[in-house]
Design brief:
Blueprint (H helix, E strand, L loop, with lengths): L4 H22 L3 H10 L4 H21 L4 H7 L1 H18 L4 H20 L8 H22 L6 H6 L5 H25 L5 H9 L1 H14 L5 H24 L2
Helix pairs in contact: 1-2, 1-11, 2-3, 3-9, 3-10, 5-7, 5-9, 6-12, 7-9
Amino acid sequence: MTLEINDYTLIVGLAFLVAGFVKGVTGMGLPPIAIGLMAVVVAPVQAAALIVVPSMVSNVWQMLIGPGFLIAARRFAGLLVMVCIGAAFGVGVLTGSTPAYATLALGLVLFVYAVLGLFKFNMHVNASQERWASPLVGGLTGFLAGATGVSSVPSAPYMNSLGMGKDELLQALGLVFTVGTFALAVGLYLKGRFELAAAWESTLCLIPTMAGVLAGQKCRALLSAETFKTVFFLGLLLLGSYMIARVLWL
């Protein structure tokens, strides 16, 4: 499908506006919403490149807030190293000669992410299990981040299982998402998919993103967070299902 520049600009702008709004209300969901909406009409590799700067800015801020950054960095060093290694392999799927594989992978990740959110999937990982689980989760998170641009699966459910406090959890997730986004950006750059023009486009996407975030923050007090999250996950479920069906059957 060939898009005129005006159509392209409108779709990308609306995708980041909606994703920013969701981020402002719920504190999550920027990459899966933005990439998912754009990937319906834009190649997944292009959508992943556009998400780099808005995602990096929001995640660095989340990572640095609070006093526990160095503690989190030491605790999850093995996980973070594996995120980078996994992303190096995953980005080959995203930039490969068969873009349908990347579309299918993104659809599956969105579907699983939505199901985990809708059913409030919970598990508990103790300290002895964390030593071997963290590198595995990091590798899979990195691979999926490289292949789809989304680094919240399985890292978000896993981090939630470690019993951290809210602020500690948000900071740790910000750290993982920052490393995942950075690894994605490096992989795309090495593959020739994140050059100066793409970086400039990604930077411009900060404008609708921040407009959406500010609007979402203002609406947060007027909406039930749980209801909004349910609608958010249902939307991701439908979006992921559509992308899977488009590759397999349409």
